[in-house]
Amino acid sequence: MENSSTAENLDDNPLSAEPGLKGADYVVRVLASRGINTVFGYPGGAIMPLYDALYNSPVEHVLCRHEQGAGMAAIGFARASGKTGVCIATSGPGATNLVTALAEAMLDSVPLVALTGQVPTTALGTDAFQEVDMLGMSLSVTKHSFLVSNVEELPEILEQAFQLANSGRPGPVLVDLPKDVLLASCASDPSSNAVADTQPVALPWNLCEQARELISQASRPVLYAGGGVGMANAVEALRFFQQKTGMPSVLTLKGLGAIAPDTTGYLGMLGMHGTRAANLAVQQCDLLVCVGARFDDRVTGRLEGFAPDARVIHLDIDPSEFGKRRQPDVALSGDLNILLPALAVKAPCEEWLKNCEAMRYEFRWRYDAPGETIYAPALLNTLSQQLPDSTVVTCDVGQHQMWVAQHMSFTRPENHLSSGGLGTMGFGLPAAIGAALSRQKQPRQDDLVICVSGDGSIMMNIQELSTARRLNLPVKVVLLDNERLGMVRQWQSLFFEGRHSETVLSDNPDFPALAQAFGIPAQTILHRHEVDDAIQTMLNTDGPYLLHVAIDAEENVWPLVPPGADNHNMLEDI
Amino acid sequence: MIKLDVMAINRQAVIERILRVVRHRGFHVCGLNMPTNTGSADVQVELTLERAGYACKTPVDQLVAQLIKLVDVVQVEQRS
Question: What sequence ranges are listed for the domain Thiamine pyrophosphate enzyme central (chain A) (predicted)?
Answer without folding.
Answer: 209-343
